[in-house]
Design goal:
With 108 residues, the chain is mainly α. Helix content is 68%, strand content 0%. The protein is built from five helices and no strands. The two termini are 15 Å apart. This is Chemotaxis protein.
Length: 108
């Protein structure tokens, strides 16, 4: 058993990394809210043809950011701390970055 696992409550009230489950759920909800706000902003900006033409790449990056936030929210809601949780991340670039980080930090 790792030191981190030894500090987690046996009742499952903590998510991965020792974050209390209620806090993880609240953080996930905040990420979903922020994603909706960004999506609304991108929609508003994209509804103007001139803005859309000038800033298409930036608007697409906003969409990518919202996808990352939603993936993180999903991990916060469902993660049990296992490395296999990364397999549920559908954004390949994000999953690759997470695997690289975990590998470099000895968590993989």
């Amino acid at each position: 058993m790792t030191a981190a696992a030894a500090t987690l409550p046996a009742d499952g009230s903590a998510s991965a990394g020792g974050v209390p489950r209620p806090l993880a759920q609240a953080l996930a909800a905040e990420l979903v809210l922020a994603s909706r706000m960004l999506a609304d902003l991108a929609y508003d900006l994209g509804s103007d043809g001139a803005t859309l033409r000038r800033h298409m790449a930036s608007l697409q990056r906003i969409d990518h950011i919202t996808q990352i936030q939603l993936a993180i929210a999903d991990l916060l809601r469902t993660s049990n701390g296992a490395d296999g949780d990364i397999a549920q991340v559908t954004l390949q670039d994000m999953a690759d970055r997470l695997r690289t980080f975990l590998g470099e930090n000895g968590a993989a």
